[in-house]
Amino acid sequence: MSKVAVVYWSGTGNTEKMAEFVAKGAVEAGFEVDSIQAVDFKEEACANYDAYAFGCPSMGAENLEECDFQPMWDSVKGSLGTKKVVLFGSYGWGSGEWMDDWKQDCSATLVDTFICNDEPDELSQVECFELGKKLA
Fold first, then answer.
1. pTM for the model
2. Strand, helix or coil at 84?
3. What percentage of the chain exceeds 90 in pLDDT?
């Protein structure tokens, strides 16, 4: 069975809810899933997974969270190789520029991305579920 890491940071709970639906979609697609907060995911763990879902909301001037998520991302992105990756997160203002920047910074096999404004509604929950399934 293939294994997926759903790695996320969430300040208000919105991105955590998204991560839950991404994980459910990956399980539906037949993956074994570990949901991990960004502060607990280390570079040496990358070898244990076949695919990844990374979630982080837009912060400040449309950037990734700087204390936990960005340092984790910087430490693992070079170890992802050609493995499949999806990126997701929520935002409360702006246009989604942080996701465009993040996509450019991802050198792994980027399958898809998804962003939602504020708390994920029913449609956003379905989109997150489908995002998890796309890792198959």
1. 0.96
2. strand
3. 93
- Please, which residues have CB within 8 angstroms of residue 53's CB and are 6 or more apart in sequence? 4, 5, 6, 7, 8, 19, 22, 23, 26, 85, 86, 87, 88, 131, 132, 135
Contact by Cβ (8 Å): 28, 133: yes
How many degrees, rounded to 5, is the angle at CA 106 between CA 88 and CA 86? 30
Q: CA 14, CA 135: separation in Å to the nearest integer?
A: 21
What token pair was written down for 35? 């949901």
Give residues with Cβ within 8 angstroms of 81, minimum separation 6: 108
Q: Determine the Cα–Cα distance for residues 129 and 109; give it in Å rounded to an integer.
A: 19
| Model pLDDT for residues 17-30, shown as the tens digit of each residue | 999 999 999 999 99
Backbone phi, then psi, for 124, in 5-degree steps? -65, -35
For residue 93, the model assigns a pLDDT of: 84
- What domains can be seen in the chain, in order of their start residue? 3-133 (3.40.50.360)
Give the mean model confidence (pLDDT) for residues 41-50: 96
